[in-house]
Amino acid sequence: MAGLRQIAMQGRAVLGIVLSQFRTLWRVLGHTFTRADTVQYPEQKPALSPRYRGRIVLTRDPDGEERCVACNLCAVVCPVACIALQKAEDAHGRWYPEFFRINFSRCILCGLCEEACPTYAIQLTPDFEMAEYDRRNMVYEKEHLLIDGPGKYHDYNFYRVAGKSIGGKDKGEAEHEAPPIDIHSLLP
Amino acid sequence: MVGIVVDGEPHEVPAGGNLLQSLLSLGLDLPYFCWHPALGSVGACRQCAVVQYRDENDVTGRVAMACMTPVAEGLRIGLKAPAAVEFRAGIIELLMTNHPHDCPVCEEGGECHLQDMTVMTGHTFRQYRGLKRTHRNQYLGPFINHEMNRCIACYRCVRFYRDYAGGDDLQVFASRNQVYFGRFEDGALENEFSGNLVEVCPTGVFTDRTFSAHFTRKWDLQTAPSVCVHCGVGCNTTPGERYGTLKRVINRYHGDLNGYFLCDRGRFGYGFVNCADRLTEPMLHGQPVTRAEGRARLRDVTFKGAIGIGSPRASLEANFALRELVGPENFYAGCADADYAMLDTIRRVLASWPVHSPSLREVEGADVVLVLGEDVGNTAPRLALAIRQATRNCMLAAAAELKIAPWQDAAVRELAQQVRGPLFVLATTGTRLDELAEVVVRRTPADIARLGFAIAHALEPAAPAVSGLSDEDRQHAESIAEALKRADNPLVVSGTGSGEPAIVEAAAQIACALSRRRKQPASVSFVVPECNSLGLMLLDPKRLGKALESAESGSVPAAIVLESDLFRSARTEAVESFLSRVGETVLLDHSPQATAHRAQIVLPVGTFAETEGTFVNGEGRAQRFFAAMSPRGAAMDSWRWLAEAHPRHDWQCLDEVTGACAAAIPVLARMVDAAPRADFRIDGLKIPRQTHRRSGRTAASAHIDIREPQPQDDTDSALAFTMEGDAFDAPAALRTYSWAPSWNSNGQSIAKFQDEVGGALRGGDPGVRLFEPVQRGAAPWFTEIPRAVAAEPGVWLTVPRYHVFGSEALSARAESVVERIPAPYVALHPSDLARLGHADSVELNWHGFREVLPVLADDTVVPGTIGVPVGLPGMPCGPCPRTLALRKAEPHGSGVST
Amino acid sequence: MSVGSPLNIGLILGAVIATAAVLIWVERRLLAVWQDRLGPNRLGPLGLLQVAADMIKILSKEDWVPPFADKGVFVFAPTVIMVTMLTAFAVVPIAPDVGIIDFNFGLLYFLALSSLSVYSAVLAGYASNNKYSLYGALRASAQTLSYEVFMGLSVMGVVMLAGTFDLRVIVEAQQNLWYIVPQCLGFAVFFIAALAESHRTPFDLPEAEHELVAGFHTEYSGIKFGMFFVGEYIGITLSSAMMVTLFFGGWHGPLLPPVVWFVLKTAVFIMLFILIRGSLPRPRYDQLMAFGWKVMLPLALVNLMLTGALVLMVGSDA
User: Fold this and answer.
1) I need a surface site. Which of B189, B348, C109, C156 has the fewest CB within 10 A?
2) What ipTM score was computed for the predicted complex, to two decimals?
């Protein structure tokens, strides 16, 4: 009896496998009557969210200064190593990139640079229409990348938080900072 | 060895150390800040907490600071015990309360010990909501940037700067969490070891100002093991390149040599590599030509029967290639004849006398030090730092008697106060070590030599006696000899700086006398002027003067000058005459200099950062250096230019030249062992010069060519210009950078590459010592003792003076160093100056040329002598005359009193 | 108009090749529909001109023969599949008056030619001189040999019932009852074998791109690749036509003219082929062989015995 039951169970399993193939066919066939998801680009433009990962820009802080401080974190996190930059410093200690180059012919638009950026300077935008006939035109320098606004993050200004003095913001004037210590004071 | 138990696991550690050091030596990770292998423990930061258990039944234990806990048999500790982990997390949170949230704009970011320890401790969220204390920064000179907000008050900077390096212009001010580390007012840090603050500071309070000017994160630097070229000590360095610029030089730990520290000349002198006026194209009569053309001209010149002038700052391989090209009989040394004589003595003494040439670690272990006629602090700063440590040995011995461990830094210093071990400085002028010396004797060079011979005689009567010594000097000789006799580990230091060959001989004589007395080789350390002075001498060149003389007779059809400026080595008129009589002159060099303007053919070569080769330092240690970057323009390795011009040799790679050199010169036979050969591989791969995190590969040159360049092939070494391969397991001589998981900072990650922390590198410190003391051998005493020089009226005996910044030609070209170079001057004793009528400047007769120079009154100058700074830009060129006639400069004076 | 007239031959040849070409478009559109996409819809009405574009592209591509290939065989291989598939079509009875040849061993002829077509894959794989191609060729030959066995056995039931190998007679014999009813098991085996014979997903292991790049035609491009491609589509059409002929009453059907019925029925099977490609995953190669020998062969034999028993019980003219 046990043998019979086993055969029955196996038979049911085989039947299940066979029926599953038919069920698959049926369900795929059912898609004949569902709407296509295709967007007829370029006549129809897709609706892209503001956080879509397209062309990379460099933004400015609310005061209109370059946000990028040339910390190199975007470059080091880039899996295809397509960001190169060089730090420079103005007379008042503010860091900025002397050059900032993205080779978009290598960029995979993964957005890791944006995640790594401590100043919200580098941001990905919903613009993806960047095709060129010449690969050399896909090398963007700082003047091509830099935009005039703050991008997605309107209020953030790295130097208002960081305790490094720059032109227009002295020591002790950043958020949560006490005035500079007078080391000549004798008070305990 | 004692057995300790860490987290239930038994371990064997050396007895007598502190627990922190022992744990790190075991390869365990324990966060720390204030402790430093070279500085010892003070227990200030409270970061290295562990739980210490009484016995195996104790489960609670108590929190103890590992750096202050001596290891003892049966010590049971918990590294991962919750109490310890929590304690450490609490400490780092407290240390971070005032930290200013500016890592992106901090030069330390990416190689910051504070970042590493914060991550290691797991502090990821800031709970402190109060105000952060802030500080104003100071201007600390051209080398160091100051950002006090980042300070965590570990006190490492002042402990290094004041206690270790002897600086006195960095101090700690104010109290409690307001403490401030800085100078009493803005100004350059005076100590010549200030650059080490960058590596000593666990965070970014002190950062490299020259590096910041063209900043690149550590992970983007292309680095290679190298050897400093700015003096003869041969400190190991790691130069780093990015975008074709040499960005910085940092210390590369070497257990026997520089250890954890470099001098500022070695650290900041690299700027000459980046100078815009470098020689980059072959020039024929001032017109640029192709490499092939340059090579053809060099070959033509060789066929004419050229002589070769070797270089004390070019590699052994380059010098050897030149020697092969022109023949040993036509090979001359590109250094002044006086230096040649002294180096020749040093070479003979090291090779065949029963004396030992100590490494810097051995220097640090000396208990009595005699410095003879050398301003070590200015000519070989790192050696002076080692001597400074040697003077502490007496207080360490006193501490040991009280059972205070040597690493108990505060306790040892408290015990010793200002007591320093016996250091005798016999000098021709004031030196940087005078402040530490028990006895300072300043005499004319000849008198210093006589004093030295007298000491040798006092030590060993067989040595020739000195007649006509003053009573004072006789007393000095006897007391110094007495101290040397009593010493367990005496050391004599001398060198070529004085310009007086007898001083070198006297130093050797003293060491030899000591060896005789002690029946074992005594240590004598010679300071040589350039990074490969000794190496050049081992190739047995002839004196430069001979070349100049033979040119006078018109028998020199052409000359090939390798990486040296003849105008620095011989009198201007002699060089001028030489160059005009020689048919054609070929110069191989990397930087423009006086000879370059006169040579018909100039072939560009790479600097130390762009080429590979072997240097022999003053200790007699052959060390290989490697290229961190490719040479500019059409520049090539010197040896390659010379090898390509050779009619017979077909040398394709450096190993072949090294091998040929080792085969040809018996004393250099072991130089091939200085580093693994070019076919060395780990898992079939070369050692990468680039870190595994390197960025920008596909963008760095995209604006020039959209296709990524193929990595440059390096046939000369086992290093590759790529990021592929294993840099971690590389042998010490090939270690391109110091990095280990969780340890990003240069100074701290090195622990992962050492046998034990602060000891030798894994697999042995790199380089090979070429000389071992000859055990037996008749002491061939120097018998020619110079006569005391009688002062002549109106004529001053010149005494060379050295400056860390300025006396060495290459570093003097570096932009940052230029700021620290003193203006040209001559120094006179105040009494002599008074005799001259208190002049502001003097007029002097320099090899027949009239020169006017400002004069300084300096009471360390021996009366009757005139201190002349060597090599300072703006000084008259050529080696300084032995005597100078001078008079007060007249506003419109024309004559010179002779 | 009668069977074998030149007009017939010309029309059928044209229709078959046109079908194969249009199938490229049909397959892409149908797969798109089932995957909620649109497929090629830009060229001409409904994207129909895509066929023309594809043809132009494939004809104008560089005709590349790899230097390491066995040149003669390399060129010859793709013609084999085209020729065998097209000549096999000769025996297909499309309608009473439509067809190329009336041949009393038509079924055997079909079996023979469909087996011959494997030479195309074998020769292509051999001539390409490339390990992936060779693997593809080996798989194709083993797979075709195995599935050929029970493909032949599966139709023997039909032959027993009809008592002939003549396809027209077989169609005539289904006037009252399509053979799908007595031969449902035979049809199932035949259908699966036909899938395997035509190297279609899920049995496209000879060109499994996830492991063999493109199998036996890895090195092919341009028109030679096109011939493989078209040959495969003719194979699908042929298999569908044979299913209709053997099991679904050929041209029989009410109201509409016989040709239309035949074309409609064939079209349904072609679409079924495409549906299967869009739905089922590919098995492992060992699973494919095990399935063939351990499941399909016994099933075919069982079908043969049952049919034989039935014929003996009911009488041969049932």
Assistant:
1) B348
2) 0.89
